[in-house]
């Protein structure tokens, strides 16, 4: 058996959700991050 890649799912692509995704990737660059947003737009703010 191979090693499985760790994954995190974030619900909500607003500023808080994208910030959480950014922090998760920064703490663990090998982490697979998936963000789900119900609306047509996600946050692209700094």
Automatic annotation (TrEMBL):
Entry-linked InterPro entries: FAD/NAD-bd_sf
Gene3D superfamilies hit by this protein: FAD/NAD(P)-binding domain
Source organism, top-level taxon: Bacteria
Protein name: NAD(P)-binding Rossmann-like domain-containing protein
